[in-house]
Amino acid sequence: MNFFERQAQARRNTTRLVVLFALAVLCIVVLVDVAVLLFFGGSVGTLVGASIVTVMIIGLGSLYRMASLRAGGERVATQLGGVAVPEDTTDPQLRRLRNVVEEMAIASGVPVPALFVLEHEQGINAFAAGYAPTDAAVAVTRGALERLNRDELQGVIAHEFSHVLNGDMRINIRLMGVLFGILMLGLIGRRILIHGAASRSRDGAFVLVMALICLVIGYAGVFFGRMIKAGVSRSREVLADASAVQFTRQTQGLAGALKKIGGVQEGSKLQERADAEEISHMLFGDGVGFAGLLATHPPLIRRIQALEPGFSGEQLAGLQARWLRSPPNGLEEDVQLGLAARDDGPLPSAAARIAVTPPMIAAHVAEPADDDWTRAGAIVAAIPAALQQAARRRDEVMAVLFALLLDGDEAIRGRQHAEIAARMGMPVADLATHLRDGMQELHPMQRLPLAQLAFPVLRMRPRPELAVFLDVVEAMVHADRRVSLFEYCLGRLLQVQVTESLDPGRHARFGRQRAVNVRQEFATLLAVVAQAGHPDDADGARRAYLAGLQRVLPRDHMPYVPPDDPVQALDAVWDPLDRLEPVAKQMLVEAITDAILHDGRISVQEAELLRMVCAVLHCPLPPVLDH
């Protein structure tokens, strides 16, 4: 199952969630009506009124919780007590966590998520939250940092990244919202019982009876909520384990993390029971302890055996006895196993040409291979230290991103400098120009990763500053409308990611648009890409355009007409194409690849342009290395 098939499945799961929620609400309404008939009698009008009030309470509760989560993954992590991990941390455990997450993000082609630690949780657990990769947050317990070695931590992070890439986070955060509504009657009943227990009047007794009824029906809501979470979560956890193995190309890390959950005394349980209950469907391991039909995760031993078929319960008991005497220490294991220092190998030559096919590229979307994540460390390590430091500083991060957008043409660069100075001040404009000088020697594969490293720092800036930042980016990519396609797409990507991070709940969506409804947008994008790949060869550009069009619209005959103003033409195509249904978007990625390819081979620069276009369309493409 590839990325596009998983996106289609996630869309079906959303529909399934709506159906299950509606059935749960119907059951609760029926229980309320039965209670009204048994205790108070009543006419049809009374039952209708009770039903309407019940639906309103559930609906308003769900809307309230969804509104409180609208800010995305960071809001979820902070509400659960997560402590942000600084970009420049020197804590060995936190530094290792940040390195692993940055490598995984760069290998996956998505922005580096916000990082949090649940400091007071000694169990081994983690979760990813958010509506999309642009607002994602990954939280890890302190117990996971202390007990897991680097390979095991990487297996856990790869598991969470599968939720980030496949749309599971979006379902999880919406599930938190809708289930809160189902629990509302129970919460109301509990509050009334707590604060009204001292009342001895007849009215007070009536209110207490009503509260008791609400509490009993609320427990039914709790049961329905747990059933929904178990039904939605269990199968996705199995797929996430499989994806983690596919990402890292080894089972020892993930299996080792699961063994430690079963072997150490703390397991994966969270101490904050209420928090664990609400996010139980999001956690890497079982944070509550439910079993059977209510379990949100498959049995631990079964998850381990899926990775290591010969593993037995007796072996797990042996690990429990060993770790009871001497609990594992992740950092010490790194040294013993030689995981602390790794040779990630060189990057491919900037002049290299890589043999690929369109189906290969489509299959690679959101599917980092083992050499992707191992070389991600090499990509970051080779970025000059001064640029890395600037990307991690709040007062310099905007200048870093402006520097990436500065054009190679001196005249255009002068106009861009003026646009930055007019809106952000001369010091920022001069710093961007200075930083650009240090970017001249960057490998083509390091430009997008530098932006990925900078993004989590950028989104920490105040909203008014981000609004000005977006204005500057808009002005820079439209400077004289002659910027390169790569710089234009990078600017567009920054605009999309910042806009989505400012209001994650508003922009989260699954595409439903059909290919036949966006023919002109297909033609425009393919024409611009083909022209950029063949600037001095009109016939070659036409052949590339027709090859791409044949793949996505084989029955249509749309002539090759490159737009006079490619930048303005592209501005109009992104939103309709981004709304494509998953299968149509897969065809689009293959068509763009066809339009870029030269005789079945692609240069490193062209591969990075392809990654940029795919990222704008929310199809994260890992670095196209020599594989």
Kindly describe this structure.
Helix content is 66%, strand content 4%. It has 627 residues and is mainly alpha-helical. The strands form two sheets. Strands 1-2-4-3 form a four-stranded mixed sheet, with helices on both faces. Helix 1 runs antiparallel to helix 29, helix 4 crosses helix 6 and helix 25 runs parallel beside helix 29.
Question: Which descriptors would you attach to this protein?
Answer:
single chain; about 625 residues; mainly alpha; 4-stranded mixed sheet; two-stranded antiparallel ribbon; 6 strands; globular
State the gist of this model:
The chain is built from 30 helices and six strands.
Report the radius of gyration as a whole number of Å.
27 Å
**Extended strand count:** 6
Which geometry do the CA atoms define? globular
Poorly predicted regions are none
Identify the strand order in the major beta sheet. Answer: 1-2-4-3
Overall structural class, as computed from helix and strand content, comes to: mainly alpha
Helical content, roughly?
55-70%
Mean pLDDT: 87
- Major β-sheet annotation: 4 strands, mixed
In terms of DSSP E residues, the strand content is: under 5%
Q: How many alpha or pi helices?
A: 30
Alpha carbon gap, first and last residue: 20 Å
